[in-house]
Amino acid sequence: MSESLTLSEATDLIEAAEAEAEEMGLKMVIAVANPEGNLIAQHRMDDAWLASVEISRNKAYTAAALQMPTHELAEPSQPGESLWGLQTTDEGRIVVFGGGYPLEADGEIVGTIGVSGGEVEQDMAVASAGVERFEERHA
Amino acid sequence: MSESLTLSEATDLIEAAEAEAEEMGLKMVIAVANPEGNLIAQHRMDDAWLASVEISRNKAYTAAALQMPTHELAEPSQPGESLWGLQTTDEGRIVVFGGGYPLEADGEIVGTIGVSGGEVEQDMAVASAGVERFEERHA
Amino acid sequence: MSESLTLSEATDLIEAAEAEAEEMGLKMVIAVANPEGNLIAQHRMDDAWLASVEISRNKAYTAAALQMPTHELAEPSQPGESLWGLQTTDEGRIVVFGGGYPLEADGEIVGTIGVSGGEVEQDMAVASAGVERFEERHA
Amino acid sequence: MSESLTLSEATDLIEAAEAEAEEMGLKMVIAVANPEGNLIAQHRMDDAWLASVEISRNKAYTAAALQMPTHELAEPSQPGESLWGLQTTDEGRIVVFGGGYPLEADGEIVGTIGVSGGEVEQDMAVASAGVERFEERHA
Fold first, then answer.
1. Most buried of the four, A54, B111, C100, C126, by CB within 10 Å?
2. Cα–Cα distance, A105 to A25 (Å, whole number)
3. Residue D115 domain-assigned?
4. Count of domains observed in chain C
5. Residue B96 sits in which domain range?
């Protein structure tokens, strides 16, 4: 298991994502997990969708469990494609639409971020603000 | 978190939906939940489908958890669309076909209704009778 | 499978139990199931405990699934007794404290009632009001 | 259904609890939920137990679902006592040892806090620091 983000780094990324969501006028749930997919921190913005509590956590889980951004799973899990059926495996924790990203430092995944609460592009934009904060810290 | 429907209001909506189902010759299960997706009341009409017990409850849950009617989820969750895979998230509680509706008063969701037991259009018609009763009460 | 209570009988029992709860100053969740343990109707009185939604449903389930009142399971499920461990079987649906009762007519179980929301003796008293209503109907 | 804590209040309570844990040399997971038991925020301090992610969340859930501190459930759920078996109901979410507390303002529960990561007395002490911060805010 590689090194993990600390709680203090995790809440910093969450705050960057929250700031982006507020600027976009969105209400999101933001989760950060360690490289083993286990939760470090999660914030539900006021009035964000209830379903997003579980979905954001599972986007963070998926990005760790498959070591890739969740939007890359959308195409291979389509009917007729190679990973058709992926989304119902692993006790229902795999999310195959965008908003989950691994956080890499020196070629190692040290954590993941998952965001849910709006349209997929919005989830991705808010999560990306967290990823950018992470990259600034590790630049 | 907004105010919630009372039990007495919930059973009134259920009775309106039941009356509509009877008039249409249908057997339905009808569930009403609070704004956080937790059950207030549920009635299974005689000989209604067993699966509809869980499905109606989850339609009510979904309408609360994503703050929209469940039929609006049908298109974005199709193969190739942006929310493909939504229907298997959140511990299998998300229903992406019609029959679940939020109940709004003064711009706030105060509860939801979910109906299952027939074709989707029938579920929607019966649930709508509950929504109408709600709207009459809040007119 | 024996005959089942109808929805109309079920809501009548629930109303009798609700009336008793109100008289006792209690807030309860009341569930009625058919002889196969599947829900017919459930009402959560305003401000009743959230946990009682699941617990009342499972008391009704248990009374059907083991064909006896749930309080009779308390003693045999104690440490060292013959059914030690019973309460963690059957996907966690077995409740081993009072408040669930089978409803028998002509020696056949035709449904069950489960009540949760207070101390066990209170749950039992409120459920018993439902049982009594049932017995009046079948006297 | 009463009003809920905001995210900003929730993270303030979590920080108060974290500060107490640090002073005591402990690593804890701290969760804050709304009155319907749904998560608002959760922080896992670095190197806190993995099991505590779920346990703290469920302590917060239990304090909402049964409207009382979780340590009050320890005695009635003992073998031979009235609520023996409570701990395995409600899909395994009920925690019957200390560390979960309701947060009340003007006689209404507006949220709950759950802490896990050490001995029960330690969990209770850290959670209490969160409760005290809440009470200062509402004094």
1. C100
2. 31
3. yes
4. 1
5. 7-137
